[in-house]
Amino acid sequence: MALSGLQIFKLLAKTNCKECGFPTCMAFAMQLAAGKAELDQCPYVTDEAKAALGEAAAPPVRKVTVGAGDMAVTVGEETVLYRHEKRFEHMPGLGVLITDEMDDATVDGLLDQLKQIEFNYVGVNLRPRVAAIKAADAGKLAALVAKADEKAGAAIIIMNDDAAALKSAAEPIKDKKPLLYAATEANFDAVAAVAKELNVPFAIKADTLEALAELGQKALDGDFKEVVLDPASSSLGDVLLDQTLIRRAAVKKTFRALGFPTIGFPSNMTDDKMLEAVYASVFVAKYAGFVILSDLDPARVLPLLYLSQNIYTDPQRPMQMDQGVYPINDPGPDSPILVTTNFSLTYFTVSSEVEASKVPAWLCIMDVEGQSVLTAWAAGKFVADAIAPFLKKSGIEEKAPHKKIIIPGYVAQISGELDEELGEGWEVQVGVREAADIPKFLRQWSAN
Amino acid sequence: MSFEPPVESCKGSIREVTIGADTKVGGETTFPFHLWEGEMPNAPMIAMEVYDEAQPDWPDTVRKVYEDVMGDPVAWAKKCQDEYSADAICLQLRSIDPNGSDASPESAAETVKKVYDAISVPLIVYGTGTPDKDAEVLKKVVEAMPDANIPIGPVEESNHRLIGAAAMGYKKPVVGFTSMDVNLAKQLNVLLTQLGVPEDKIIIDPTTGALGYGLEYCYSIMERDRLAALMQNDGKMQMPILNNMAPETWKAKESKVSEEEEPTYGNVETRGILWEAITATTLLLAGTDILVMRHPDAVKLVRTAIEGLQAQTKEKVAS
């Protein structure tokens, strides 16, 4: 829970020395409460104040980073239960389980995939980043961890019950912040000691939320900040229950002992690969920080990555495309010219239909701050006196000198006005209302 | 500080709507699958799609499943009911599209009757979203089938009077369709009830975006619908939700583009089926009551997910 300016003021020196840059301690406290100043601007701050304020300022779900560089995964810092309330902050780290029961070729194949799989969707780079390495034998564990680090540069989760085995595997890559998995009631002290010594995050695991919260409290008492929770849910219903109650406790009750990101292994609940992907989607939508799969078949990873992006996109900032002329199916001077808005969904729907039509075409995407055709028209942004200058500056007349412009059917009413605004030599044609009808329309279209 | 499960109870609940002879949808007294703190008396239903004309442009993954019944909606519906255990059939009257075959209301009504007579699970009848034609056709459909309890849709603001009046006259449930907006959905429910449509005969179609194509909008709209219904006890939002999702997911490029064209995307069948199943599962978590689905394998996966979500260790929240 954030502290008020007055509560912060009580923790300050109250000397009004002005060294922080503010006229009074009270003014400084108000700025701190508003998040506009940093505590270390005050040279006289006490350790006690630091601890109290640091704790108060910490997000209800702590931030945890596993891995380093491009493959690093940061999760946590979440503040809401519903994405429309603000937004979800960090997409879950998606990864694969690698065990000592796999032969070398399988391990190599998975690491290759981990390194290679990468999709670009609405300008966002999506990829799995995590290798969860599990082996009973300490030597094999360390060898697999070293290999995953070397071959894939992955964010690594090291899985073993024995603190010594975790330590020997983690130590050589400790700067890359591997996640130790997992401390339980039986081995908490030993695993926590390794995490402290190597300065790496660790996971805690328990069958009930009560037991998990007890371990969480022990971690807080030991001054650990980077902890990951595994509620070891045994059914899909329990995944929803556990994840919901953990997030609720953290966000609504500021219950710090469960104020950490979570990890889930959907393959613990099924051997069916398709079902595993479906179960994984529940983890993705419902708050998980890490989701570990049993393999990396791209046909199953792709929808899960898209889902992560969808759920974690900022609802207050519609996804937008850059303004410009997009060539589809390799168009030429006689290809049709379509114009629409830069709302990403509009672009996707229209461009995928144009693509499907196999007809080469020019798609002119106009910046209307990411609104759909009708919304932008109603807001006066997708109207004749805005579209005409956009088209004239877009360079489309050099690319397709026929200058016949197809507008969306939903704004048929602007065609006359747009004709006038564009002037001599241009022609406005009214296209279809629904994107689904585009292929038929384009196949019948001719420049003459 | 010891852990106390933060259980929440809701002020409001979702109405139960009866479709078919005695199948109920809705009735939740809590958020989707929050069975530890409320009731979900009717698990979400899977209505499988049937089209009244062949769909030659479908991606192979789904086309080959229905190739033997395309153009024969009766056989198609029976296949979904008997082979794939569909909970319901959603008959998509694609033939009436003025830009397509432009079939007459009479012929559409005849098809509806034939399909209805051939199956024992509930039937839902959907037009093409062309308001004038849909009104004309759906009116004819309810007149031709006075005794059948078939929900009809999509009912939009522009045709709600025509369809609403016909539905009321023959006591049919209606599916109100609005364009991804909580306020518009509520507004249409207000209009329908002002017209005289009983509140327990209304189902909400909030518009469905597929995975990668607006799913997140739909997800948040549905979450907000349910928050209004359950937490604010808003009577005009306490209707079950239907997601006409199959046409959207199978339109997505990622569900149909071949592995030859997009080598990094992996097997096209796996991808297409999961595109539908994961879209559906996400909608389950947002509060859907009726999923309109297409591929039998996706249906099977989602059915297992529905069962899985109901399996909960309630002792976890016992205090």
Task: Provide an overview of this structure.
The complex is a heterodimer of chains A (448) and B (319). The termini of chain A are far apart. Chain A has 448 residues and is an alpha/beta fold. In chain A, the strands form four sheets. Chain A has an eight-stranded parallel beta sheet. In chain A, 41% of the residues lie in helices and 16% in strands. Chain A has helices spanning 5-11, 25-33, 47-57, 104-116, 138-152, 163-170, 188-198, 209-221, 236-253, 273-285, 298-312, 344-357, 373-378, 384-393, 396-399, 415-422, 438-444, and strands at residues 64-66, 73-75, 93-99, 119-121, 124-126, 130-134, 155-159, 179-183, 202-205, 227-230, 263-264, 290-293, 324-328, 337-341, 361-366, 404-407, 427-430. Chain A is built from 17 helices and 17 strands. The model of chain A has no long low-confidence stretch (mean pLDDT 93). The radius of gyration of chain A is 28 Å and the shape is globular. With 319 residues, chain B is of the alpha/beta class. Helix content of chain B is 40%, strand content 13%. Chain B has eleven helices and ten strands. Chain B has helices at 60-66, 73-83, 105-118, 131-144, 160-169, 182-195, 215-230, 246-249, 253-256, 268-286, 296-310, and strands at 16-19, 23-26, 45-51, 88-92, 123-126, 152-155, 174-177, 202-205, 242-243, 290-293. In chain B, strand 4, helix 3 and strand 5 (123-126) form a beta-alpha-beta unit. In chain B, helix 5 packs across helix 6 (182-195). The mean pLDDT of chain B is 96. The chains are: A alpha/beta (448), B alpha/beta (319). Chains A and B meet through helix 8, helix 9, helix 10, helix 11 and helix 12 of A and helix 7, helix 10 and helix 11 of B.
